[in-house]
Write a structure and sequence with these properties.
It comes from Coregonus suidteri. Its EC number is 3.1.3.16. GO terms for molecular function: metal ion binding; protein serine/threonine phosphatase activity. InterPro entries: PPM-type-like_dom_sf, PPM-type_phosphatase-like_dom, PPTC7. This protein is globular. A hairpin with a 2-residue loop joins strand 9 (about 170) and strand 10. Helix 2 (about 85-100) crosses helix 3. The chain has helices at about 5-20, 85-100, 110-120, 215-220, 225-230, 240-255, 265-270; strands spanning about 25-35, 50, 55-60, 65-70, 130-140, 145-150, 155-160, 160-165, 170, 175, 180, 200-205, 210-215, 285-295. About 30% of the residues lie in helices and about 30% in strands. It is an alpha+beta fold. Strands 2, 3, 4, 5, 6, 11 and 12 form a seven-stranded antiparallel sheet that branches. The protein has a five-stranded antiparallel sheet with strand order 1-14-13-7-8.
Length: about 300
Amino acid sequence: MFSVLSYGRLVARAVIGGLSQTDSRDYSLVTASCGFGKDSRKGILKKGMCYGDDACFIAQHRSADVLGVADGVGGWRDYGVDPSQFSGTLMKTCERLVKEGRFVPSNPVGVLTSSYYELLQNKVPLLGSSTACIVVLDRQSHRLHTANLGDSGFLVVRGGEVVHRSDEQQHYFNTPFQLSIAPPEAEGAVLSDSPDAADSSSFNVLLGDIILTATDGLFDNMPDYMILQELKKLKNTNYESIQQTARSIAEQAHVLAYDHNYMSPFAQFACDNGLNVRGGKPDDITVLLSIVTEYTD
């Protein structure tokens, strides 16, 4: 038999649960970015929304907040191609499509597909390859819709714990899924995946949830527990605080990338694949840090 007190608690939980399910408020994201180019040891290398060969965007439309990161494949530099051009143009195209309202919040793969096919249709081919991760918050439904192709990705943190994370996509060690455009003579010889191959997910978020979206330069150098330690320093939802925390995370990953005595997640993954590797992984680093807040005009 339930006591009166127990029954009261159950009623209270039901009321609270009912209110959360019928929350009519729109949600939004407050997002800050920070990053480092691999070849910029002394500070942040920023060109538009590019950090080295990484690129990112943050965009809003009346129905959704959308953001993304992309990591240009550096190997193209050996063929005289600037890898940042492909990733940067891909993200700029995604941003434009969002701002023009040419997207469906529940289908982030669609944004990625439309952007990629625009690049394919350019009269002058834009050669290169890139991973990509797109995150969309539907303001009214409070659902986060994601698409991740390759080894960039995202974490959703609630109450100091990771409650959602993207799945990394690798063909084999250190060879992630990627979008590519190759010259005609090299088609078939260059690794290229379809946007439809992106891993997709959809789930509800709550006010106060933290969303961290980043390229592999972060995840290869900082394990989750280190990221969570930095996120504990985030005390409020104003942009300045979020920016400071994003910078702190990016800076720590940048330092660890050049620590030869550190057993990084990348080094551990390499060892798991039979390679004798130790130290951080020097790489471009891009961090987008977001907090779910109540939408205000």
